[in-house]
Amino acid sequence: MEVERGLRRAACHSSRSAGRRFPEASDPFRTAYQRDRDRVIHSSAFRRLQYKTQVFINHEGDHYRTRLTHTLEVAQIARTIARILRLNEDLTEAVALAHDLGHTPFGHAGEEVLDRLMRNHGGFEHNIQSFRIVDELERAYPDFPGLNLTRESRYGIIAHSSRAGFVPEDLQGLGPPSLEAQVADIADEIAYSAHDMEDGLSSGLIGVSDLEEAALFRRHWPGSFEKGQHYGRVKVRTLLRRVIGDLVVALVEETERRIQESGIEETTRSPAEAHERRLPLIELPARQDTELRELKTVLHERLYRHPRVAETTEAETRRLPDLFRHYLETPEDLPAHFEQRIGTSSRERVVCDYIAGMTDRFATWDYQRRYG
Question: What pLDDT shows up at residue 2?
Answer without folding.
Answer: 40
